[in-house]
Design goal:
This protein is of the alpha/beta class. It is built from 9 helices and 6 strands.
């Protein structure tokens, strides 16, 4: 049985490697590097050798922008005799505002991967500056050589669980910040109120929040019934 030869690109995503092998030549594969933004992404086309086939250009973060991008992909593939199944897309860690954009790409049969942001930064030609062009070049290099991750390898349940975990962590962080702010002000208005041993009220319980919601002061609390 023939064994795969060891590669110097040990972190290259196996699906990208498979595309490059199936294409017959790296020149027959199309890598689309994306630098995400809320309004307009930037895109750059190169082949598996890293030769730039289309310089950086803007892409609207919308359904129309996606169709325009795919039209450019189609024209490049036709001109370079590249098959659709040998096209792959990728960008840095996916922010929430590109999820619909990327999921639509995946549903149309394209491989969509994300690259390690730190690795992409390391791959830039100039480490002291950051421009759209340099960022895209770093992303493209990382797609072809280094650490990439494919969300399509995960089930919908796993992706949903990860999203819920991140959302919960964000809410817990916000809640903690709010509690610290409340503690700061309450310790000035009525010290000891948020200490159950002194006030007899569990901190941040329904009665505690009700008392703090309106007319909260030493005088008001003294005048209230138990």
């Amino acid at each position: 049985m023939e064994q795969n030869a060891p590669s110097i690109f040990t972190k290259q995503h196996p699906k990208i490697r498979q595309i490059l092998e199936q294409a017959g030549s790296p020149a027959k594969a199309l890598c689309v590097a994306l630098d995400y933004a809320k309004a307009k992404h930037m895109a750059l086309f190169c082949n598996g050798f890293g030769d730039i086939l289309k310089k950086a250009f803007p892409v609207d973060n919308s359904a129309a922008g996606l169709q325009a991008l795919l039209a450019e992909v189609g024209r490049t593939c036709q001109h370079r005799h590249i098959r659709k199944k040998h096209v792959f897309f990728g960008g840095e860690d996916n922010p929430p505002y590109v999820i619909n954009f990327l999921e639509t790409l995946a549903k149309q049969g394209y491989l969509v991967v994300r690259v390690n942001a730190w690795e992409a930064k390391r791959q830039r030609e100039n480490h002291q500056a950051s421009t759209d062009i340099l960022d895209l070049l770093g992303i493209a290099k990382t797609l072809l050589q280094q650490a990439t991750y494919c969300d399509q390898d995960q089930t919908h349940s796993i992706r949903a669980l990860k999203e819920l975990s991140r959302t919960r962590a964000a809410f817990v962080e916000q809640w903690t910040v709010q509690k610290l702010q409340v503690h700061h002000y309450v310790s000035r208005l009525l010290p000891g109120f948020l200490n159950a041993e002194q006030s007899g009220i569990s901190p941040f319980s329904a009665p505690s929040l009700a008392l703090m919601a309106e007319d909260f002061s030493v005088g008001q609390i003294r005048r209230r019934r138990s």
